[in-house]
Amino acid sequence: MTKKIKEVQLISISDLLDIEKYKENGAYFCERFGIMMNLGDVPENEWMNPYQPYRSKEWRIARITSGVSKYIINLQEHVLQKNTIHILPPGTLVMKVSQSDDLSAEFLSIYDLDELNSRIPQGHTLYYTADEETGLRFHEYYKLILRMTQDSRTPFTSIRLTAFALAEDMISQQEEIQGKNKDKIKLNRHQLLNDQFMELLNQQGTLKHEIRFYSDLLFVTPNYLSNVVKEISGQTVSWWINYMVVMEAKMLLLHSNLQIGEIATGLAFQIFLSSVGSSSVKQE
């Protein structure tokens, strides 16, 4: 019987940086909440090291204000630039790839936003680029929340509800954009199938490594699924399965106390040490 792997430790913003160092004018952190008006103030080597995947512990609500960064989020590559909006639910797989020297972002880290679970379920993210006017409107939310944190009389409930209002405004804006473009951008069946496969892989990929497992859940043949995923993503289903396992292995090496042999056994997969440093998932 395959040994069950230990769950990867979820990582919060407090785990990623020394929050005491940044409790200044443009930042505030407490046990359940954090805000930073200029993420660019944090040196890159104190934030996220490239090619070190982890799963987020809390909700992340961000707006890029300048520069460009590239992340792998739930196995998909995302390019973030000015006015890119991002909302990540707890449990999101995150790995930084690169960022420009002038990268800056407004950033909320918050627990207790269960109202968003039906809007952005685990395994999904919100990701789009807003226009300048809308980006400035979102900026006002961040400014308001920071002012609220600076007043000791403000209850956390008020801060949480304002953060929820910001997230709802961002979601509504994306829905409006999608509504205007529904006649121009039609999600075809192949794209939809590829997206459904990626979602399943993110949920099940650490222990389920057979193509048929995914094709059966999606009610298609293994060959059909393989052809569609190759057409849309440029990589085979087997490549994606291997990629998911290597990502999980890296997370376990970074964020658990398991040894390499235990990880390989737990993942029920033949992982060669060279795979962890392969081109598909670079080492720092």
UniProtKB/TrEMBL annotation:
Example GO molecular function: sequence-specific DNA binding
Classification via InterPro entries: HTH_AraC (IPR018060)
PROSITE patterns in the cross-refs: HTH_ARAC_FAMILY_2 (PS01124)
Keywords, sorted A to Z: DNA-binding
Endpoints of the signal sequence: none
Domain (HTH araC/xylS-type) ranges: 195-269
Gene3D superfamilies membership: Homeodomain-like
Superkingdom of origin: Bacteria
Name the UniProt record assigns to this protein: Transcriptional regulator
Protein source organism: Bacteroides reticulotermitis JCM 10512
